[in-house]
Predict the structure of M18 family aminopeptidase.
Amino acid sequence: MNREAEELLSFINNSPTAFHAVSELKRELKQVGFTELDPGQQWNLKKGEKYFLSRNDSALIAFIPGTDFLNQGFRIISSHTDSPGLKVKPDPIIKSEEQYLLNTEVYGGPILNTWYDRELSLAGKVILKSENSFKLQEKLIDLKENLAVIPNLAIHLNKDVNKKGEIDKKKGLRALITQDLSQSKQHKKRKKSQNSDSETQFNLDSLIAQFLDCRSADILETELYLYPTQKAQFSGPNQEYIAAGRQDNLSMVHSALKALISADSGDWTQMAIFYDNEEIGSHTPQGADSPFAGDLIERIIYNLGAKKEDYYRIIEKSFLLSADMAHAVHPNFSEEYDQNNRPLLNQGPVIKYNANLKYTTNASTAGVIIDLMDKNDIPYQFYSNRSDKRGGSTIGPIAATQLGIKSIDLGNPLLAMHSSRELGGSNDHQEMIKLMTLFLNEN
């Protein structure tokens, strides 16, 4: 199996949340000589050097300033670190029938029934006390163990379960995490005299504190997500498929990372933007609908001696490749797709089109990428929604609008998009990395 696909599996397994994905990005970037910048400090950038900075620990931008960026502009690849899922609510523990449940809410647009009857764990960010209230300690946590499950109601008590798919988001997505063993019938009387009710209550902060080796009293707040513990793995008799959640959009994050770290410094500035919060509309300080990237571009060029007029020149000469996964044709539901634009797994990257510009691709931007792929024997495909169906959008139109840069939308084909277990093609990942590398490097 190709090395790039194997590395993708590891990347997904190590990235249960956007926080962890950015932590992995930082680790790999530092290994190849990228320097982390502090946005709150003065910079002294140098052409040809490698830099990155993060925001909210869930978004990151890495770049290599070009030696002739005034005349050559920027080449940018954008993707996003977040995926649809279930977020744990504040004060999440609910006790019902002597059992403890985790109260959750839906993040983005997951296929909810795929979260049932799967072993789940918890991961995210923990905020700890410190002497300075404005400089609190922040730690990532991944409990890794099978801790919770969302059980289906038995078919005998829900006879229409296979006829209707609607899920009660208020109570149907609470995850069973443990039970109050002290309340078992045989021990109720004996235990009652020995333990106060508070001692027998399950406490999530105590579980986290034990993992972090800190006091539960030091935990100020948490931002936690459930995730399936089943590892990403190859599938198929020839390992032709990748079975894993969060391929949308960690596959594109990993592709952009590999392309950038293999890039040599050139005349133009090479940049990879890893936004957060695409799945909920990008309207956050670390999302594509923010000044995060635009402000950074200005800061880079002004630090290197450019003037305001130069900024507009640079924008006109720049190019954005927006990378988000694409819909592969489903062999059981092929009628749901356009007659001709029907991508297949393992047949190469997909250029995405929409007449109403939910994807930013136009003939001019597509021509550049098609020419690159034709010259380098990279297979490619096209996707457009069936004319009577509305599809999703991507970060492409939002980022391109914010930056004013010509752009194209593309991604690798994927089945079961937004399921907790998606299916991608293992060969496609290698081809996408090859394309992105050419995009950043070719004259």
